[in-house]
Amino acid sequence: MHTKTLVVAGGGAAGFFCAVNAARMNPALRVILLEKSTKLLAKVKISGGGRCNLTHQCDSITEMVKCYPRGGSFLKKAFHHFFTADTIAWFSNRGVSLVAEEDGRMFPATNSSQTIIHCLLEEAEKFSVEIRMNTGVQGIKKKGHQWDVETSNGIIAADFICIATGGFTKSEHFNWLLSTGHTLVSPLPSLFTFNLLDKSITRLMGVSVDNAQVKIAGTKLSETGSLLITHWGLSGHAVLRLSAWGARYLAEKDYNFEVLVNWCPKYNETSLLPVLALMRSENASQKIRNRNNFGLPARLWEYLLGCAGIGAEIRWADLPARQQNSLAKVICSSVFSMKGKTTFKEEFVTAGGISLQDIDPNSMQSKLQEGLFFAGEIMDVDGITGGYNFQHAWTSGYLAAQTICSKAP
Length: 409
Description:
Helix content: 25-40%
Number of domains: 2
Distance between the termini: 12 Å
Number of helices: 13
CATH class of the largest domain: Alpha Beta
Largest sheet: 6 strands, antiparallel, barrel
Structural class: alpha+beta
Number of strands: 19
CATH architecture of the largest domain: 3-Layer(bba) Sandwich
Shape: elongated
Strand order of the largest sheet: 12-15-14-13-16-17
Low-confidence stretches: none
């Protein structure tokens, strides 16, 4: 016989992790998982191109929290209770081994997100989690020591409720939650790509550079990593991470800003000049377009030469000093004007959410309302790409479950 009821709002990573762990830790607890749509674990399915980048290989909490533009201090406390090694062990104990790539991203060894989905669904079935689809939460009200959870399919009485609905893009979508007295940090998009005003470089769509430095002009915001040219502008890890760190600044600018790209970040304009001078002497008889020592894609190299005013037939020996200086500037500091953004649907997250001042990082319980918990992106926490947002989901979901079970007889 069930003595207490937990309602989890949201069938994503955080909600599922809270539900399955609570049901496992306390078999006497009735656990009801509500999902407003027809799909469970939708982000898990598409993450990492369908491979699911579910955490990052990092054993230092201090280093890990540096990858969260918002919520790092909060997670520093939470991660002491459930961290990356715990995530790896949790899935490993259920037959899912994880593999780390060179950049630290971790995926299931099967390279399929379906492995993670199957594991969580199996756990839910094993511990009798009640899953109700097409059931969205419309409001919650305290009724004595319990909660009335108002859903699209009626009211559910709960002793505990965990809000794991993911991030909302508009402030008004939080209204049903704010009635409980919590503060909202205005939601904004994070992890988006940049739209170019001048489309000349977009004819190189599909060209990528493994290691480029991207800066937002007039700020200290800078990221180094892969850079991809798309038909609308610039994407890749460097851009996505930069959008996360600059989310609020770029919103204030209405997404009109300038970006500086260094295609060879091991050099700056000054240190590159002697390198070009050496190339000039060593490759004197060769056409410049046929020879670049920077590992840049041929199409991009030709584009950069054009930007520096260097014709296709010019040999290294005939390169005037003025154009050599222009080439150094173009390689190390290409300027692009941006106007607008494009949501990177696979990795999209929201900056903002329920203020962390209202939530206990050690338990995920509301400081204002007994029995109310939060997990995942509904809180004002967001990470850069690389498995960081999923780790936050696992940690917050687990801590909420653990605390609820400690309170339920």
